[in-house]
Design a protein that fits this description.
Shape: globular
Strand order of the largest sheet: 2-1-3-4-5
Largest sheet: 5 strands, parallel
CATH topology of the domain at 3-37 and 78-143: Rossmann fold
């Protein structure tokens, strides 16, 4: 079986590349997708609809334009990996986890142990919690057996 894996969350480290490279090295039957990971491009996604002076409306339009991609890819995902990093609060990742839970898409959370308490509800719906990208690769290897 081939798995479509959606990679959600934190964009400031190379965790996506570590998972993709690890799965490629094992020749696992997986394909990957994610939201736009270029922060400036994501923030500017709605600018094609006209500039807004107020930050709220620019963010609102960009969030909706970005959601076209995210919603479509999440609906086609067999499993999602939801990454929560240390530097910023990834509210979008929490939203993606909730969306997965609501539609019945299995997901794996990926985060350090020091934020387990803050993510207890998100982790409670996850099929697994990993603390390293290498653990995610091992989980995907097992699932692809």
């Amino acid at each position: 079986m081939h798995f479509n894996v959606y990679l959600s969350g934190e964009i400031h480290t190379d965790w996506r590349e570590q998972i993709i490279d690890g799965c490629n090295a094992l020749n696992l039957p997986v394909s990957f997708s994610s939201a736009v990971t270029d922060h400036e491009a994501s923030d500017a996604a709605g600018d094609v609809l006209g500039q807004d002076e107020a930050g709220f409306w620019r963010d609102h339009k960009s969030a909706k334009v970005n959601a076209i991609r995210i919603k479509t890819l999440l609906e086609h995902a067999d499993v999602a990996v939801i990454r929560f990093g240390q530097k910023y609060k990834q509210w979008n990742a929490a939203f993606d986890a909730g969306y997965c839970a609501a539609q019945g898409t299995p997901y794996i959370t990926l985060h350090d142990e020091n934020i387990v308490h803050a993510l207890k509800e998100v982790d409670a719906q996850a099929m697994a919690w990993a603390s390293t990208p290498q653990q995610v690769v091992a989980l995907l290897k097992h699932v692809c057996r």
